[in-house]
Every structure is written in C-alpha cells, then in structure tokens.
Description:
15 helices, alpha+beta, ten-stranded mixed β-sheet
Amino acid sequence: xxxxxYIIDGARTPFLKARNGPGPFTPVDLAVQCGRPLxxxxxxxxxxxxxxxxxxxxxxxDEMNPAxxxxxxxxxxxxxxxxxxxxxxxxxxxxxxxxxxxxxxGSANMILAGGTEALxxxxxxxxxxxxxxxxxxxxxxxxxxxxxxxxxxxxxYLKPVIGLERGLTDPITDLNMGQTAExxxxxxxxTREQSDAYAVESHKRLARAQAAGWLKGxxxxxxxxSGQFYDHDDGxxxxxxxxxxxxxxxxxxxxWGQVTPGNSSQITDGASWTILASEDAVAKHGLTPKAVIIxxxxxxxxxxxxxxxxxxxxxxxxxxxxxxxxxxxxWELNEAFATQVLGCLKAxxxxxxxxxxxxxxxxAGEIDPARLNVDGGAISLGHPVGTSGxxxxxxxxxxxxxxxxxxGIATECIGGGLGGAMLIxxx
Length: 427
C-alpha cells in the first residue's frame, strides 16, 4: 500500500531581483543560505536524510550537480546521495514530487527537496558563427593558416547572446514565454487593464504579508560575503498602480501587446527547501507534520499556449480525486504573467474550452480571487525558474495553516508546453 507522505518544514531565501550583473549569491550559495537555518532547527542530524533532490535550470559551470555541492556544504555527510532535476519552471515542484513518490513507495523515509536559481548568473553565449570561427582558428596549422583563419573574423562573431533570452524561447514554436502569454491573452480576450490590475493586486498582497509578518519562519535572512544581509523579497512595489503600469510599453508584441515588465514575473534569484517524511520518520524523530501530500499530476499541451498548463494538470488532479474547483479552499498558481493567470481563470469558466479540451460536461466554474495567491506571487516576488515550484508548495502549506483551510492546490505553467499540480491537505 502507498504510504502517506508529510511535509514537515521548509524555508526559502528572500527573492532578490536581478540587477545588471551577477547577484551576491550563486545557485548553491542560495540553497545553503536557507538550508542551514532550516536544518539547524530540526531535532535530527543533517545526515539523517536518505537523499537530497534539488531543482535547478541554469546550472553554472562551477557548480555542476548543485544538489550534491549544496548537500556537502550543508554538512550532510559524504555518504549523502544528492541529484539535480530539471523540468523548466516545474523543477522545484519536481523535486518534491520525486521525493513524494520515493517515500510513498517505501524506498526512503526522509528527503530534503528544494529548488534554486540565480538568474542573474545566466551566461552570455557566443553566436554559433563565432564558435565556429574560434574552432577554425584553434585547429589551423601553421602561421599562414592561422592568419587566414584570423582574417575571417567578423565583429558580429564577438557579440554574445544572453543565454536567458534563448532559454526562455521555445525551440519548437520559436515563441518566447512572453509571446505565449500574448497568445493566451488573445484567445480569452484578456485586456491590458485587467492584466495591470491583477499585477497591482499581487504587489499589494505581498506588501501586506510582509508588513503583517506572515512570511516570518518561511523567509530566512541571507548574508553575503561582505556581511550585507537580505531579509525580504525586494521586487515588491507597494505603490504600484494601474495608472503607473499603463505607462509601460508592451515588450513582446509591439505596439498592441498586453504583456509588459509591470505585469510579468520578475527575473530573480532565490532558493527554497522542503522536508518530506514518512510516518516512520515522523515517529522516530518526534516530528510534527504541517501537511500531507495527497496526489500530484503532470500534463502536457501545445507549447504555444503553455500558460494554460495549470488548467490541464489541476483539472486532471481534481477529477482523479473527485473534487471540483469549489472544493479547493486555497490556490497557489504561479504568476508567470498576469495575462496567463487570467487566461487560466477564464478557461475554467469557458464552457466550450471545458468541453472540448478538458472533457467536462460544462464549465468548471470560477475561482474566488480571495482564495488565489493570497500573499501575492511571482509578479511581485519574482520567478527564479528552478525554485518557484518549490516555493508555491511551501507557501501554500504555510498559508493554509494561517488561514485555517484544509485543502489546497499548487500549480504552474511550464515552458515547453507542460503543467504541474499538487494536491495538499493540512494536518
């Protein structure tokens, strides 16, 4: 029989907005910054885990397999098995899902699952023509051949490409993620005003959560090597307004597009961890679970409308567990773009879409805005790609405990035409 799997605890760093160059922390630095206080408050040794799983998309050359590097730096012992997973925006949730399935099936009792990303460290990439020129120069034999190879140099060969820009472009459709959000907005008639209004609300909700202290215990202060500290998500703009956002120009589809820097997720650095345990581990270490993972679902769809991934995955998850939208008391739907989130909400309330795509008899219905992203989301927090899936699960658990709700879903769209969803119940 499948064993219950509990979420025991978790922590994350502040999400720090990328600003014109590498930030103060590498991906592993970030994982260590929030991992140390999390492990220090547990009643067991760091070596008690069976394994470590970490989501990371933009792995840097100095930290190959960041899960293993982080585990060693966290003092978890040389015998600790640690591996890195990557499914684009779903990587942080994939780490939890892999841990959940491993523990459920009896192969482990306690796993540290996380996500980390330092988008400010995204590399500059040489154009392919430049790479070929360098290769020709390096392999040329003799002075004459090398001189001839050098003579073929063109200035464009030395102009690097921002790796993140290519990484956020789907290679099948050749649409970047912002353009896929524009497609979703067009299909469901999302207006610029609606997107900007949603973005403003995200900032207000995060600012309220910070002021009320609701993120204490979840966000751990990070300290860089110079002694400077970072204790809050620094992309939040409490003074944001629809009037201010309306002045921004579209980025991806000029001049008529809906997606702007103001209603999109921010390019950000951050890490998050969660501790998952079986009943045996709970009893052995005297742990107090916060929540139990009921089920999870991964789904796929046309990459050009990848923003609708949450609708596909969360609906399949609810159907398998005989639940409706109204049965879910708290939602975390990653805010890649305001237009994309609003498109998901409209899709669930569109009878034609629900019948033809979801196989339902009628529209699924509406999600009460008061139940959705109650403390803001990636528009105000930022979206460190490999981390966000972990953060939304961790925050869903903490928000449900605070609000006194029992059942919640964390879900996200995933570049490449995927969606992930996880059903959680508080204990």
